[in-house]
Amino acid sequence: MNRPRALALAAAVAGLAMTAPGAGQPVAPPATPAVNPQVEEGRYLAALGDCESCHDRPGGQKLAGGLPLNTPFGVIYSANITPDRDTGIGAWSEADFYRAMHEGRNNHNAHLYPAFPYAYFTRMSRAEVDAIRAYLMAQPAVSYRPRANRLPFPLSIRALVGVWNWLYFKPGDFQPAAGQSAAWNRGAYIVEGPGHCGACHTPKTFLGGDKQQQALQGGQLDNWFAPDLNGDARGGLADWTTADIVEFLKTGRNARSSASGSMSDVIVHSTSQMNDGDLAAVATYLKSLPAAKAAAPAPAAPDPAAMQAGAALYLDNCAACHRADGAGVPREFPPLKGNSNVQTGNPTTVDRFILSGTESTATDARPTPLAMPSFAWKLTDAEIADVATYIRNSWGNAAPPVSAGDVAKLRGKVAAHPVRKPSEKA
Amino acid sequence: MPQAPKVDALIVGFGWTGAILAQELTDAGLNVLAVERGDWVDTATDFATTFAQDELRYYWRKELFQRPAHETLTVRNNVAETALPMRQLGSFLPGVGVGGAGVHWNGQTWRFLPSDFVARSHNIERYGKAAVPDDMTIQDWGVSYQELEPYYDKFEYLCGVSGKAGNLNGAIQPGGDPFEGPRSREYPNPPLEMPYAPTLFAQAATSLGHHPFPHPASNLSRAYTNPLGVQMGPCTYCGFCEKYGCGNYSKSSAQTTILPVLMRKPNFTLKTNCEALKLNLAPDGKSVSSVTLADANGQTYDQPAELVILSAYVLHNVRLLLLSGVGKPYDPKTGEGIIGKNYAYQITSSVRFTFDDKILNPFIGAGALGMMMNDYNGDNFDHTGLGFIGGGYIGVLQTGARPIETLFDPGDLTAWGADWKKKTARDYLKTFFIATHGAVMSHRGNYLDLDPTYRDVFGRPLMRMTFDYTDNEHRMSDYLTDRAVEIAHAMNPREVKPKYRKGSWDVVPYQTTHNTGGAIMGTDPKSSALNKYLQMWDVPNLFVMGSTAFPQQPGYNPTGTVAALAYHAAEAIKSQYLKAPGQPLVQA
Fold first, then answer.
1. Rounded to whole angstroms, how far apart are CA atoms A209 and A167?
2. How far apart are CA A382 and CA A394, in angstroms?
3. CA distance B209 to chain A (A)
């Protein structure tokens, strides 16, 4: 739900909830509370760690948890991490909190499920984790108990996580690499530590562990494909400059792409809050990653009939925004020409865009929530496959064709961007 | 009645002017509440590109317009008639929902002429007292073009208007409108690409010594980021502006220029499906203490506010004042009273021309795409001996020949059958229109009041509109139409068919949504409701936005001036009023 609608609805429901001081005078800013440096450090680290993307649920209070996380194994509800003693972490000691972040165990020493990315947070130092706790403890306590996880037996047995940890979890603080710049090491720390980029961008084993040999090569989750962050051509970041990466993370869009899906939350709650030095560090680190895969052989030329049908559909449905030459409108309607999301080997994201529509992430720097509508009701599976094949293989793009079956598998699993039907108006 | 906590500023109606005032007043630190009786409306939900071009839904079934079953008005041409309720919208199309009529406008973004703001004194000075008959109740605005120039500029840059300046700081510019008032800088975006029919018109008009130029358009000729940081896309010339929302973020509206920033502000709240029923005066009658609101469930409550901004559609602003007993209602018999006075409108005509040998592709379009000329607008020409004052623009506006609307009433062709199909197929691509768009001078007998008989869903009296064209309008419109016929012939088409505006104003066919007046601005509380800052003379914590304030309607579309007046008022509130709340900004 986009923010304006959320606000409008909230306002309509809230009725008489407005309060305001004043006698027509400008409202005086509230007296600035004394700044606690540890809390401020924790606030920034909590943004680096993107706590809110998972621990805020729609309509809920900040950090009170309850967001359902759809894992391949079942639904896990995020925890309340406000200082409420009964339902939050108010009763947790500093040591408890550090053990959770560093070892993935709760205040009763039971295993936490790795949907909570302690495998990344373990890279943070004790002082940093203490600062995050100080920040969390300074937030309003919210009494809210999230729903119980819905995990099938035997996954519902927390002790089994010990096996997972033995396979995939290497606890320990971040170790800087000798011979690399301070910026590179800072970037590596953020990406591999609090930023937990690999949680989405690294492909997973059947047990949900990171395939370490394929770090950041792109992963599928929740019917999105999180793209390759290595220096690969087409699907990766080969064509992106460090400035492109910084702009994308800071504003949600750049001349090449626009954030969507779960990345929108990451932009809003985390990367747009990062300082310029850290953004540059992340970009420096990512740009140092070589192409991870051998250059894929050029895919076979797609079926000319599909390309012809796709071209006609493109002109009627897509060209108004993405332009006839696929160049798009930089920072508004992403170019499809050269776009890495369009050319990934796995077409889930591009198929999903067409089926569901999408909306640009609104940030302070780029507040406009430009949207692409859903075509699910307008185009058949075969038509979506044809137009997807067309954009993946035009203007110099090359990627395997999309089949109607690919689209059919996704249809029904992803919600369309809402539209108002005529009958909804009185 | 329940009372809500007091707010710094309450904004009633959330279209262009409501959004402008909300943006400006929240910038000043006020806690602002806006109420809008319609729904939340946004591009992606309400008119995405996949369904925005739906003629049945949006025009014939009137999706974006006021619902007469909820509230309408009664209409008559003169006081001798009994007004009857308008049960289907026709002549004009007020909007409903967030963004108001600014969602479905064309984007025609004009400035009025400097002389338009001093219509009474200017015409008397140039043509003598007899030029303004006793019953022509026009007056000067109390604000000058020079005072408004920075605010016209601000709105044009907010919208990213596509155009070509004709007068930069007094220096006439080739390719622009040489008659316009001096502007401080060029338009933010270049003109739209010009299609064939307007180009032919411009060539013909130039050959006759006229001065055509590209229509200033809030349809964007290229991608644009406005001063608030809001991004808009380039226009695709799809031809669905007028009466439609833009699915491509290419037409300026509150949604595409302000709301992305405003809705993020913590000191702003919007309540939709929330209707203002009445302004409540303080016991001394000198301020509005609260506004009675009805929420989506019909629950009513009082919303107190330090400052109240009326920014609903022009007709609704006037009706709320009348229903609330704020200001003295106008009486046409005595000429006394002020609320409802000087209702005015617009007078239009057209000249159809059809070629045998030229394909005009009329389906290409944008709301303000065209070539216009102001040689016969305002007082840009000598009216001596013509028997009228005022004027209008003439031009070819290519808004998009949408198939149902365009073919439904194909002029004098038979409206159905084999012959109709044959002629339509033959002429659709080769036919176009020159439009004239003229001023309406206010008149003693044209006014707004409350209907004695008909009521709305809340049981409140409907507004009653009493309006007709006078000889001044007909003479002026005929004069413009004659000029358009000359230009049409100069294009050398197969056929030229003028459609003069004859007889009384007719509420049925769509003409324009340029209703004006009813709480007019001026220099004197005896002859105006509002001072130059749109502040009520009698009730200083009440400001009334919109063309409600126009003392008469010049020959241009009103939105540019509506917005400039809103920004001018907002600046005065911020820089003067808030330093001494409750005080008049102009001493009577």
1. 8
2. 18
3. 38
Q: pLDDT tens per residue, chain A (426 residues)?
A: 333 433 333 333 333 333 333 334 444 555 566 789 999 999 999 999 999 999 999 999 999 999 999 888 889 999 999 999 999 999 999 999 999 999 999 999 999 999 999 999 999 999 999 999 999 999 999 999 999 999 888 888 888 888 889 889 999 999 999 999 999 999 999 999 999 999 999 999 988 889 988 999 999 888 899 999 999 888 899 999 999 999 999 999 999 999 998 899 999 999 999 999 999 999 999 999 998 777 666 778 899 999 999 999 999 999 999 999 999 999 999 999 999 899 988 999 999 999 999 999 999 999 999 999 999 999 999 999 999 999 999 999 999 999 999 999 999 888 887 888 875 544
CA-based max dimension of chain B = 72
**How far, CA to CA in Å, does B515 sit from each of A294, B20, B93?**
68, 20, 10
b/e string for B51-84 if b means 16 or more Cβ within 10 A?
Answer: bbbbbebbbeebbbbbeeeebbbbbbbeeeeebe
For residue A182, give the 3-state DSSP assignment: helix
- What are the b/e assignments for A53-65, b being 16+ CB within 10 Å? bbbbbeebbebbb
CA distance A57 to A420: 24
Show contacts of B507-512: CB within 8 Å, 24+ apart.
B507/B75, B507/B86, B507/B90, B507/B91, B508/B90, B508/B91, B509/B90, B509/B91, B510/B90, B510/B91, B510/B92, B510/B93, B511/B91, B511/B92, B511/B345, B511/B346, B511/B348, B512/B91, B512/B92, B512/B345, B512/B346, B512/B348, B512/B437, B512/B557
Q: With contact defined as beta carbons under 8 Å apart, do A410 and A352 qualify?
A: yes
Burial A189-204 (b: 16+ CB within 10 A, else e): bbbbbbbbbbbbbbbb
With 0-12 / 13-18 / 19 or more C-beta atoms within 10 angstroms meaning exposed / middle / buried, residue B484 is buried
Mapping DSSP to helix (H, G, I), strand (E, B) and coil, where does residue A133 land? helix
Length of chain B: 588
DSSP three-state, residue B101 = helix
End-to-end CA separation in angstroms for chain A: 23
Cα gap B472→B481, rounded to integer Å: 14
CB B368 within 8 A of CB B216: yes
Instruction: Encode pLDDT of B416-455 as tens digits.
Output: 788 888 888 889 999 999 999 999 999 999 999 999 999 9
Catalytic, out of B122, B215, B514, B568: B514
Q: Which of B255, B318, B248, B242 is nearest to B557 (CA)?
A: B242
SS3 B396: strand
Q: Report the candidate in A266, A407, A291, A400 with the shortest Cα–Cα distance to residue A349.
A: A407
Check if the beta carbon of residue B74 is closer than 8 Å to that of residue B454: yes
Write the residue in A7, A15, A24 that is nearest to B263 by C-beta: A7
Where do runs of H (alpha helix) occur along A374-413? 381-392, 404-410
Q: Are B340 and B322 in contact (CB under 8 A)?
A: yes
Cα of B381 to nearest chain A Cα, Å: 43
User: Is A100 strand, coil or helix?
Assistant: helix
3-state secondary structure of A71: strand
**Beta strands, E only, B386-518:** 392-397, 431-438, 447-455, 461-466, 495-499, 516-518
Q: Which residue of A has its CA nearest to B25?
A: A26
Whole-angstrom Cα distance, residue A335 to residue A338?
7
Q: What is the DSSP letter of A247?
A: H
Cα–Cα separations (whole angstroms), residue B309 to B34, B35, B248, B492: 9, 11, 31, 52
Across the interface, whether the CB atoms of B46 and A419 are under 8 A apart is answered yes
User: Which site among B3, B263, B542, B577 would you substitute to test the A interface, given the most A Cβ atoms closer than 10 Å to its Cβ?
Assistant: B263
Q: Is B443 annotated as catalytic?
A: no
Q: Collapsing DSSP states into helix, strand and coil, what is residue A226?
A: strand
How far from the centroid of its chain's Cα atoms is residue A46's Cα?
15
